[in-house]
Amino acid sequence: MMTDSKKWVACWGNATSITNRREAVYAKDLTLRYPIRMPFGGSMLRFRFSNLTGTEPVTLSKVFVGHTPVTFGGEKNVCLMPGRETESDAISYPVNRGDTIEVSFYLADYTQMNSGTLVTGPLSKGYYAYGDFAETDELPIDLSRHTNWYYFLNTVDVLTSPENHAIVCYGDSITAQSWPDYMAQLAFGSHVAIIRRAVSGTRILRQYDCITYQAYGLKGATRFPIEMNVAGASDVIIQHGINDIIHPVGEDVNPFRPWSDLPTVEEMERGVEDIYVKPAKAMGLKVWSGTLLPIFGWRTYNEDRDAMRQQFNEWLRTSPIFDGCVDFDAAVRSTTNPKAFADGFDSGDHLHPSERAYEAMAQAAVHKLIRHMPRYDHEESF
Fold first, then answer.
1. What is the pLDDT of residues 256-304, one digit of tens each?
2. CA 265, CA 216: separation in Å to the nearest integer?
3. Most Cβ neighbours (<10 Å): which of 48, 169, 221, 311?
């Protein structure tokens, strides 16, 4: 659905993956609420919900944005079929840049909570409450808690001005953490929305099919075509591949992590080109490589793995198949020991960055992709 001189653009999004398998995987009589800050204004909204990795139907008994019901084929509830994504009706809901909308939905009956993803960052904090509070202004403090698990809600689109567009940040746990949120903050006031498509533990070429590691997500060839369903996307930043390098340890150490899973650098390069770059180019997108971060001190670190990372990074920096490179490695590494994070940039596990480092990553991405983009000089009304 479009009107003259307007188009649909994704203004918020996460990936959907298999959630971490625990003793309890069902919920009942639960309200989930997710606040979303609007990067630009628009006149209508539509919502995509995903049960991509579920094995049972999921019923959303009611869905609201603020006090406005979200409908699906005119109905106020919807059944999300396993392995499928479902889009709502477009609803009239005028928003301005900087508004925070709240998407709330109620799960009345026993619900398999197997489709979602864990994300963090200054713009990523949801809530849940026991009971039906989808239509209320406030969740009762004694029945609710914060959560960084985003269940079922996958994408929000806004009908907006034609100059607005989306940049997709695609990756693993590095991207599931804070840098896309910091990038969104830095880009605020431009015509850009930042859409995160990231799942912790994922690899380019492999995936786990055991319940121990199912939450590490789908392999690239399975993920990418689904996750790149992003209205109004113009660019994608791909920061992916470190788990291909660090996961294999041999079946004598871990039966689910055989050495046969360890690719060559050439196989990783070919995978990125065939699985990511060629399809993205066919979608008309600019494709930006993101270099892999230091791993010195990580529990499976060795010199051979780091040599793979360095060789892969050199290809990411120089290959002509990309429109450019966001050199995240250069933004966070130590000047005296380039194999390691700079002081204050290591979260402590020697794999994931600190918040300061995530801010540096966001600055590097904004410098490459947004510095020449025109900024708003007024707020358009819808």
1. 999 999 999 999 999 999 999 999 999 999 999 999 999 999 999 999 9
2. 21
3. 169
Task: Tell me the pLDDT band of 378, cut-offs 50, 70 and 90.
Answer: very low
Q: Which two tokens stand for residue 329?
A: 């490695």
Pairing of strands 192-198, 165-171: parallel
Say whether pLDDT at 2 is over 50. Answer: no
- Any residues with CB less than 8 A from the CB of 269 and at least 6 apart, and which? 312, 315, 319
State the pTM of this model: 0.94
Looking at residue 4, what is its pLDDT? 60
Query: 365 in the Ramachandran plot: left (φ > 0), alpha (ψ -120 to 50) or beta?
Result: alpha
Secondary structure of the chain: what % helix, strand, coil (to 5)? 25, 30, 45
CB-CB contact of 360 with 346 (8 Å):
no
Supply φ then ψ for residue 211, to 5 degrees. Answer: -70, -25
Residue whose tokens read 């789908």: 218
Which run of H or of E encompasses 63?
A: strand 62-65
Beta bridge partners of 168: 195, 236
The SS3 of residue 109 is coil
**Helix 179-187 vs helix 355-369: angle between axes, to the nearest 10 degrees?**
50
Rounded to 10 degrees, the C-alpha dihedral 305/310/311/315 comes to 140
Question: What type of residue is 335?
Answer: T
- Partners of 146 in beta bridges: 127
Phi-psi region of 318 (alpha: psi -120 to 50; beta: other; left: phi over 0): alpha
3-class DSSP state for residue 191? Answer: coil
Of the chain, the end-to-end C-alpha distance in Å amounts to: 16
